[in-house]
Each structure stands twice: as structure tokens, then as C-alpha cells.
Design goal:
- This protein is an alpha+beta fold.
- The protein folds into three domains: 145 residues, Orthogonal Bundle (Butyryl-Coa Dehydrogenase, subunit A, domain 1); 125 residues, Butyryl-CoA Dehydrogenase, subunit A, domain 2 (Beta Barrel); 228 residues, no CATH class.
- The longest helix is centred in the middle third of the chain and has 37 residues.
- Helix 8 packs antiparallel against helix 9, helix 9 crosses helix 15 and helix 10 crosses helix 13.
- Strands 3, 4, 5, 6, 7, 10 and 11 form a seven-stranded mixed β-sheet that branches. Strands 1-2 form a two-stranded antiparallel ribbon.
- 56% of the residues lie in helices and 12% in strands.
- It is globular and about 80 Å long.
- Strand 4 and strand 5 form a beta hairpin.
- Bound molecules: flavin-adenine dinucleotide (FAD).
- Flavin-adenine dinucleotide binds next to strand 3, strand 5 and helix 12.
């Protein structure tokens, strides 16, 4: 059975030495995040995830969820583990203290969520969806709605879901048909069918608060006529106690490739009572609050699964003996050398490691900027951070899940045939990681979001939030001692990104299909530069620590080797990606549909 050890040393390096979270003490929540508190959160979370949540990962995969007469039972152990998780206060770690949360920085919540997802992705989705519902109600709910729903969502007593997808519409929500008919008392009757609803029905909580997109008759057609509703599974009385069952039932559970421990439900709404949240017909705006939080969460899933897959690939590579090293026997006491001596095995392991550690830095940097966007006293700083998060979100969602899936497959490859065998657990990582590329806006849609929405915003304002600091970093460090190995490669890749950006902007204006054709390769190029920026900074910090005579030399030396591997082996892909972007979309669009 696979094992998991939370990468605490790396979290500490990133939070303390790279992001310097101790410098943000003037922001709400950060003052409480003293070094002792950060240690307690990291250590406590690691212990819970390693000892309680991770052992249920394979159980959840093998058992799956069961539906009986509208009632869904989660796999053995999930309910008790969820109770332990909630009792530890983990569900409200970053939530608003006004509703019972601990108000700690979002960046710590991301660290905890990575650990939970590595330990058990299917389990982590239950609190993950609740967190999205919390965000939407917190941002858009009335005071009354917040008081009624948030404390119990924060404590974990109730959970949340997000209901967008219908049988005939996923990406194109303008097509949705679920109807919301206004009632005399101000509520709405919701009727329609939602499919693929994660955590849509289960036995972990006493109530489920569904957030549902629906159309109020007579509103504008398409996406502009969508509203968002709170639809509780059980009606909620004014004092928060539960009333009658509402008209929403789980019609069936999907049989699916992975995340078997998470219930993916068809939900039938049959005149269910719902309450408008946010403005009528402006539901997409409110839903985006939830979707942006969820997109980062899904990006973390790619990274998290890659991390546990890596750990188990490393231990296998040290243990499994096959063949002799090309440069002569390394372990004469054994009939063959451990496969970790082989360059190709090292190529795979280092590729995963350079990805996970770079991605973790990028995700936590995004997390810090979410905190700044929410909490900085200066509105200009809030705006700058918000812009950066908006720019990075499609990259975190898309690149981290693409590379996360590729990493899971590589880790499986390290196990050879044994990686294909179910009981060893490696193939589960591949199956689980696959969905993250699809849901929360398929990755191709994230690329369109980057190219079509984020680049043009404010005549490139979002872009400048990233380009300027990178330019500054390069200028300040290229002539320094680490310049040649770590900053020059970044400068080269950054120049490619600038060329690609100019190409996409220019060609896309003439013909939108050109922007569409370039979008996925452009996003990947951009994300690699973003990771390159992280790795170059980390290399500089690690070098400085070594120069200062740091104790933990092996850790910093390993960082430098991994940084160098990233610069030599992964970042050069920006060259071929630029060539693909500049190849244009003519050939892609040349064939008639009939000729495919
Ligand atoms: C296990 C699981 C859990 C899920 N959980 C939830 C949930 O909790 N709540 C929820 O509401 N939904 C959920 N979903 C649904 C998921 O978000 C959708 O499946 C996803 O958004 C894609 O929609 P679709 O399946 O209808 O694909 P389609 O929209 O039909 O897309 C098919 C393909 O076409 C591409 N495409 C579509 N339009 C365009 C375009 N304009 N330009 C370029 N390419 C395009 C897409 O990228 C995709 O590759 C879940 C799905 C699964 C499988």
C-alpha cells in the first residue's frame, strides 16, 4: 500500500525563506500566524493526513460510494475520519472568525489542502466543495444567509456543493435549463436535473447546502439570464435547526474512472425551495467566486497526487533491483543494482520533483496574493494582488493538473509492470489525477480564459503584474553569482514568452481562431516561465543559505540540483512551445469536419 509523508521541510522553506510570511504581520490573520502557530498547523495537519486520512485512500477506491433509496453511504472509515477532521478545527482554518473560523492566512489553508489531497483526493473533495460554498455565501450572501449557513459550514456540521452541469451543458452554461420560479414569500421553486455533482449526497454531514445555477423565467437568454440559489437538502429553520426534507434527491451515482470515494451524483430538483444569492440574473458573477477558489483547489489536486506518486516511486526505485549501473556495479551485495542508479529512472523522478516543488512554490505564492487581495489595507495593493491571482488561476488549474497527471503516469512507469497492478496503488494515482484536467472548466477552457479574457484585461494590466517583477528579478540578478545557471535560462524563456504574447495578441485580433489555436501551448509556455521564476528565486535563496553556513546543507544542495535540472531539462520546452504557438492555426483549421 502506498505511504505518505507530508513534505514539511519544503513547506517551511517556502513559507519562511521564499515567501517570508513573517513580513506580513500587519495583515489580519498573519499576526496570529506566528512561527509557533505555523509549525503547529503544519505538524498537526501532517499527522492527521498521514495517520488518519491516507490509510483510507485505497479503501475508498476499492469500496466506492453506495446509493440505496436516495441515501449515499461513503466508504468505510470516511465518516469517522471526517469527524476527527472537523473536531480538530481543520475545516475552519482560514474561515472568517465571525462565523467560527480561525481566520488564518489562505496560504496555510493551501498547504493543508495539498496534504489532505495527497493523502486522499476523494476524501478531500468533501471539505473542498464546502469551502467553495463558504466562499460564495461569504462574498454574496445577505447577512441573514451568512448567519444561518456559514457557522455550520465552517464547523463542518453541514457541507456544500456546486451545481452547474446538466446533461446537455457543461462548458456552455448559457444552455442550462434548470428553472427557478419566484414564489410569493420571496423564495423560488427549483426544477431541473444536475449531473456530475461532486459530494452531492453523502452521510458525512447532517445537511448539504447546494449552490445551484438556474434561470428565472423571463430573464435574458443565455449566460446573462442565470441566477444562483441556495438549496438546502433539509430546510433550515430560523434558529438553524433542521426542518422538512427539501425537493432534491440523488437519482444515481456515476461509475467512474477514479476518485471512487467521492460521490458523483445526479441530483433531481423537483420544485425544491431555493433562495436567491447575489443579484437576479447575475449568478455567474457569484458562481465565479466559488469557481476561482475551486480552480486553485483543483490545481492543487494535480500537484498533490504527483507528490504522493513521487514519494512512492522513489521508495520503489531504491528498493527494486534490476540490472547493473551503466558505469559499473553499485551494490555488489545484491544480485543487481537498485533501479535508482539508472539515468532514465532518475530522469523521471527528477522531472516529477522539479514539477512538484516548483508548482508548490507557485501555488503558495498565489495563496499569499489571495491573502493580499483580501486583506491588504491599501486598495492599490489589493487590486495588484487580485490581478495577479486572476492571471495565475488558469495556469495553476491547467498546468498543475496536466503535469500532475503526467507525473502520476511517470511514477507508475518507475514501478514497471507492478505499477499497473491495482493492489500496489500506483494506478489509482493515475486514475484519480485524470479528472482534475477535466472538471472546473476543462483545461482547454482555462487556456482560452488566459488568452481571451486575462491577456486583454485593462490593455495587458494583469500581464504586467507578472512581467514587471520577473523583468526586475532578471535585471537585478543576472550578473550575480547564480546568474549564469539560474537567471539566464529564465531570461531566455521569458523572452520567448514575450514573443509568444506579442504573436497571440496580434494574430488573435485579426482572427480569434488563431488565439484559440495557440492557447494551450501558450498557457504551458507561460506556466513554465512562472515555475522558472519560482525555481530561480529558490536557487538564490538556497545558495545564500549555503553561503551563510546553514546547518541543513543537504536540503539546500538538493534544491540547487533540482533547480538546475528544471533549468536544463524542463524550461527548454519553452522553445518548442514558442515554435508551436508561432506555427499558427491554419493547418489546424484546414480540414472539413467530414475529413476528420
Ligand atoms: C467526476 C466529476 C465530478 C464533477 N463535479 C462537478 C460538480 O461538482 N459540479 C458541477 O457542476 N460539475 C461537475 N462536473 C462536471 C464538469 O465540470 C464538466 O464535465 C466539465 O466542465 C466539462 O463539461 P462537459 O463534460 O459537458 O464537456 P463539454 O462542455 O461538452 O466539453 C467537451 C470538450 O470540448 C471542449 N470545449 C467545449 N467548449 C469549447 C470551446 N468553446 N472552445 C474550445 N473547446 C471547447 C472542452 O474543453 C472539452 O474538452 C464533474 C465532472 C466529473 C466527471
Amino acid at each position: 500500500m502506498p505511504t505518505y509523508k507530508a513534505p514539511l521541510r519544503d513547506f517551511r522553506f517556502l513559507l519562511n525563506d521564499l515567501l517570508n510570511i513573517q513580513n506580513y504581520g500587519n495583515l489580519p490573520g498573519f499576526a496570529e500566524a506566528t512561527p509557533d502557530m505555523v509549525d503547529a498547523v503544519l505538524d498537526g495537519s501532517a499527522q492527521l493526513m498521514e495517520e488518519v486520512i491516507a490509510p483510507l485512500n485505497q479503501v475508498g477506491d476499492l469500496e466506492g460510494c453506495k446509493l440505496d433509496n436516495g441515501v449515499v453511504t461513503t466508504p468505510t472509515g470516511f465518516k469517522a475520519a471526517y469527524k476527527t477532521y472537523c473536531e480538530g478545527g481543520w475545516n475552519g482554518l482560514t474561515a472568517d472568525p465571525e462565523y467560527g473560523g480561525q481566520g488564518l492566512p489562505h496560504v496555510l489553508g493551501l498547504a493543508m489542502s495539498e496534504m489532505m489531497t495527497s493523502a486522499n483526493m476523494a476524501f478531500g473533495m468533501y471539505p473542498g466543495l464546502s469551502h467553495g460554498a463558504y466562499e460564495a455565501i461569504h462574498a454574496w450572501g445577505t447577512d441573514e444567509q451568512k448567519k444561518l449557513y456559514l457557522p455550520r459550514i465552517v464547523s463542518g456540521e453541514w457541507s456544500g456543493t456546486m451545481n452547474l452541469t446538466e446533461p446537455h451543458c457543461g462548458t456552455d452554461l448559457g444552455l442550462l435549463r434548470t428553472k427557478a420560479e419566484p414564489q410569493a414569500d420571496g423564495s423560488y421553486k427549483i426544477t431541473g436535473t444536475k449531473i456530475f455533482i461532486s459530494a452531492g449526497e453523502h452521510d458525512l454531514t447532517s445537511n448539504i447546502i447546494h449552490l445551484v445555477l438556474a434561470k428565472v423565467p423571463g430573464g435574458p437568454a443565455g449566460i446573462k439570464g442565470i441566477s444562483l440559489f441556495i438549496v438546502p437538502k433539509f430546510m433550515v429553520n430560523a434558529d438553524g435547526s433542521l426542518g422538512a426534507r427539501n425537493g432534491v434527491m440523488c437519482g444515481s451515482l456515476e461509475h467512474k474512472m477514479g476518485i471512487h470515494g467521492n460521490a458523483t451524483c445526479v441530483l433531481n430538483y423537483d420544485g425544491a425551495t431555493g433562495y436567491l444569492i447575489g443579484e437576479k440574473h447575475k449568478g455567474m458573477r457569484a458562481m465565479f467566486t466559488m469557481m476561482n477558489a475551486a480552480r486553485l483547489g483543483v490545481g492543487m489536486q494535480g500537484l498533490a497526487v504527483a507528490e504522493i506518486a513521487y514519494q512512492n516511486a522513489v521508495s520503489y526505485a531504491k528498493d527494486r533491483v534490476q540490472g547493473r549501473s551503466l558505469t559499473g556495479t553499485k551494490d555488489a551485495g545484491k544480485p543487481a543494482d537498485p533501479i535508482i542508479v539508472h539515468p532514465d529512472i532518475r530522469r523521471m523522478l527528477l522531472t516529477i520533483r522539479a514539477f512538484t516543488e516548483g508548482a508548490r512554490a507557485l501555488a503558495l505564492w498565489t495563496g499569499i496574493n489571495i491573502d493580499l487581495a483580501n486583506k491588504h489595507p491599501d486598495p492599490a495593493q489589493r487590486q495588484a494582488a487580485d490581478d495577479l491571482v486572476a492571471l495565475l488561476t488558469p495556469m495553476v488549474k491547467s498546468y498543475l493538473t496536466d503535469a500532475g497527471y503526467e507525473s502520476a503516469t511517470m511514477a507508475q512507469q518507475v514501478w514497471g509492470g507492478h505499477g499497473y497492478i491495482r493492489e500496489n496503488g500506483m494506478e489509482q494515482f493515475v486514475r484519480d489525477a485524470r479528472i482534475a484536467m477535466i472538471y472546473e472548466g476543462a483545461n482547454g477552457i482555462q487556456a482560452l480564459d488566459l488568452v481571451g479574457r486575462k491577456l486583454p484585461t485593462g490593455m495587458g494590466r494583469l500581464l504586467r503584474r507578472f512581467f514587471h517583477p520577473v523583468e526586475q528579478f532578471i535585471q537585478e540578478n543576472v550578473a550575480g553569482p547564480a546568474g549564469k545557471d539560474f537567471v539566464m535560462p529564465l531570461a531566455k524563456a521569458f523572452a520567448r514568452l514575450q514573443q509568444a504574447t506579442a504573436y497571440v495578441a496580434e494574430q488573435g485580433l485579426k482572427n480569434p481562431d488563431e488565439a484559440g489555436a495557440a492557447s494551450s501551448d501558450y498557457l504551458r509556455l507561460f506556466a513554465l516561465v512562472a515555475l522558472g521564476h519560482m525555481w530561480a528565486q529558490k536557487a538564490l535563496v538556497a545558495q545564500a543559505k549555503l553561503n551563510d553556513g546553514a546547518q541543513d546543507r543537504a536540503f539546500y544542495e538538493t534544491k540547487l540540483v533540482t533547480a538546475r535540472f528544471f533549468m536544463e531539462r524542463l524550461l527548454p520546452d519553452t522553445g518548442s512551445l514558442l515554435a508551436k504557438v508561432q506555427a499558427g492555426g491554419r493547418t489546424m483549421m484546414a480540414l472539413d469536419a467530414a475529413n476528420f
